[in-house]
Specification:
Elements lengths: L5 H14 L14 H5 L7 E5 L18 E4 L8 H9 L3 E3 L8 H14 L6
Parallel strand pairs: 1-2, 1-3
């Protein structure tokens, strides 16, 4: 997609990981269309889609910190009905991220924090 800067995001991830002494780096992948992403066969079993009004992510079992998880957060205005239906067909479960409408970048960080708070530290 236009405006994508994966090198910048990889640099941000490396700097953040170094700042907090992480032993592993989260992977930054190139952006792809949602439909193509949902067709991937290598997605982890734990799949969430941020949905207003859904049960809170924190109320859901998050497994251990060594388990992979994917959390979809929508664009401004949220996912379309067709996108939400496609995600459900790809085994994504709806989850809430709190009572407020969040910007996409804030929602991603909030979701990551909720997932990290619910799992033991990764070694």
């Amino acid at each position: 997609p236009q405006g994508e800067r994966p090198e910048r995001w990889s640099k941000v991830v490396r700097a953040a990981a170094g700042q907090c002494d992480r032993a592993w780096l989260p992977e930054v992948l190139p952006a792809i269309e949602l439909a193509a992403f949902l067709l991937r066969t290598d997605l982890p079993a734990r799949r969430w889609i941020a949905t207003a009004g859904a049960p809170p992510l924190g109320a859901n079992p998050v497994g251990s910190a060594t388990d992979d998880v994917v959390l979809l957060v929508g664009p401004e205005g949220g996912f379309s009905a067709a996108e939400a239906k496609a995600a459900a067909a790809a085994s994504f479960q709806p989850c809430g991220l709190g009572p407020h409408v969040l910007r996409a970048e804030t929602a991603a960080l909030a979701g990551a924090a909720i997932l990290m708070a619910g799992a033991p530290p990764r070694r």
